[in-house]
Design goal:
alpha/beta, single chain, PLP-dependent aminotransferase family protein, 463 residues, DNA-binding
């Protein structure tokens, strides 16, 4: 096997060896015996450890098989694996919509329509300190399962945080999850059967729509107004539909950024009582709010309302910690579903969040985030207003603007224009439960000071 290794290359030597062997496999096909570790290291002039790591990478990729006592061989599946990799990216792009492309775009693309904070906003020092502290003081969290409900101390801390929102719940009414999406998934699995009807906000959360359709649930959209769900439209829909659940956001609704008004909150609860459905209150943006406003869970006392929260949006997309608060009987059933589907949530992640809550670093982090987002929101509103964009409603905070331009009747056209400018956008279509055409797009204000965003949003002639 003749491979060229460039010791001066920016590509690590182990990656060069791995890529070289991959190319050799592509030419020689399955079943071929590969050089021994000792021979490969000698022939290429690399260390034995480098040869071992290269082979292990190829084994993990499904290209090589290790036969104890006989060495390494090209796997029977190697040709199929390589063929799938060659065609996979294009085929995947063909079958996914614009929303999922936000996770596939190049790193240098400006993700103006995404639902998370920019990487350079992430403050890693306090998080890294908490990780080191947990690793030193609670090494078992690196290996052991968490308890079925989740770490008791963190549930008690969440209980106190909910009390600041006037939501009364015992720690045993709180179930920790692997983020907000995991919480929604548990509820959908437990509470809904194929053919059931649910009400969702329109526009609303695209990932929720996908979970519901996966369960073969009938999804009915209720228009989202500036003060919450359109209760008059909801009342009209209740004459012909019997929903099991209503999914709603009380604070900084995704994608409109609007907040629930007290009059609407009371009316929604009255309708839920009268027509016997439950409400899932998704409050994952709670920590972006400086002055708390009304929550359905506070008014209801967790009788009909199921309350969700998360630390992932504010702390780290990779550190998945969320929670569900509900009446005890429902929590017991949700624990059973959680144990069956994922056994437990991450004890390590829970301990990191616990540490940051206890030492005050999480509180200070969110205070800084709120201040930055407030400044970004003000400048973004000024930018789009001056350029003639229409804003659905001016948010009191958070990170989303729901906007459209009078010169453009389809968000797909905006997405195409954005791509030409190196910008990834969220088309309005994916936020509608019926997938209908929409001129609206979701803008993440945390990205709007980037020069590409300023040029795109501030210059309508580009559209």
């Amino acid at each position: 096997m003749k491979l060229e290794i460039d010791q001066d290359s920016n590509l690590p030597v182990v990656a060069q060896v791995t890529d070289g062997v991959r190319d050799w496999i592509a030419r020689h096909g399955a079943g071929s015996r590969l050089p021994s570790i000792r021979r490969l290291a000698r022939d290429l002039g690399v260390s034995r450890n480098t040869a071992i790591e290269a082979y292990e990478r190829l084994v993990a990729q499904g290209l090589v098989r290790s036969r104890p006592g006989a060495g390494f061989y090209v796997a029977d599946s190697a040709v199929r694996v390589l063929a799938r990799e060659d065609s996979g990216a294009e085929n995947l792009e063909d079958v996914t919509d614009e929303m999922w492309r936000l996770f596939q775009t190049r790193e240098d693309s400006l993700k103006l329509g995404c639902g998370w904070l920019p990487t350079d906003w992430r403050e890693g020092d306090d998080l890294a300190h908490a990780i080191r502290q947990v690793t030193r003081q609670d090494r078992l969290s690196l290996f052991d399962y968490s308890t079925p409900l989740g770490t008791p101390v963190l549930r008690s801390l969440i209980e106190e945080r909910m009390r600041l929102l006037d939501i009364e719940a015992d720690a045993n009414q709180i179930l920790l999850t692997g983020g907000g999406s995991h919480a929604l998934d548990l509820l959908v699995r437990l509470m809904l059967n194929p053919g059931d009807t649910v009400f969702v906000e329109s526009p609303g959360y695209y990932n929720l729509f996908g979970l519901l359709r996966l369960q073969r649930v009938k999804v009915i959209g209720v228009p989202r107004l500036s003060g919450g769900p359109d209760v008059e439209r909801m009342e009209a829909l209740l004459k012909t539909h019997r929903p099991r659940l209503l999914f709603t956001n009380s604070v900084f609704q995704n994608p409109t950024g609007t907040t629930l008004a007290p009059t609407v909150a009371h009316r929604v609860l009255q309708l839920a009582e009268k027509h016997d459905f439950r409400i899932v209150e998704d409050d994952i943006y709670a920590d972006f709010q400086r002055d708390p406003t009304i929550r359905l869970a506070a008014l209801d006392g967790l009788r009909r309302v199921i309350y969700l929260g998360s630390f992932s949006k504010s702390l780290s997309c990779s550190l998945r910690v969320g929670f569900i608060a509900a009446e005890p009987g429902l929590i017991k059933q949700l624990v059973d579903v959680k144990m069956l589907t994922s056994i437990a949530s991450s004890r390590f992640a829970e301990q990191v969040v616990t540490t940051m809550l206890e030492n005050g670093s999480y509180r200070k982090l969110t205070e800084r985030l709120r201040l930055k987002l407030s400044g970004q929101m003000a400048s973004a509103l000024e930018l789009v207003g001056a350029a003639g964009w229409e804003v659905f409603a001016e948010p009191a905070g958070g990170m989303f603007l729901w906007v459209r331009h009078p010169a453009v009747d389809s968000s797909s056209r905006l997405v195409e224009s954005g791509q030409c400018a190196g910008i990834s956008l969220s088309p309005g279509d994916v936020f509608l439960p019926d997938g209908g055409r929409s001129p609206w797009i979701r803008i993440n204000v945390a990205y709007t000071r980037d020069p590409r965003a300023v040029r795109f949003l501030g210059n309508p002639s580009m559209l």
